[in-house]
Amino acid sequence: MNIEMAINKVKAFSLWIYIVAVLAGIIYAVCVGHETATPGEIIYEKTHTR
């Protein structure tokens, strides 16, 4: 029982770290001014090259 509780705590902690990292990356990209291409734009560029 204690092992399961420890594993669940580690999973929850890992999830929070992942969420914070993703949010920090988004905030950094917005602050720096990077423009991200949507998947549709990437596909359009690859299929409509001259």
Radius of gyration: 19 Å
What would you call the shape?
elongated
Q: Specify the biggest β-sheet.
A: none
SSE pattern, N- to C-terminal: HH
Tally the helices: what do you get?
2
Content of β-strand: under 5%
What portion of residues is helical? over 70%
Distance between the termini: 63 Å
What ranges have pLDDT less than 50 throughout 5 or more consecutive residues? none
The total strand number stands at: 0
In words, what does this structure look like?
The model has no long low-confidence stretch (mean pLDDT 86). The protein contains 2 helices and no strands. With 50 residues, it is mainly alpha-helical. The chain is elongated.
Q: Can you give me a brief rundown of this structure?
A:
By secondary structure, the chain is mainly α.
Topology:
Layout: H1 2-32, H2 39-47
Describe the structure using short key phrases.
2 helices; single chain; mainly alpha; about 50 residues
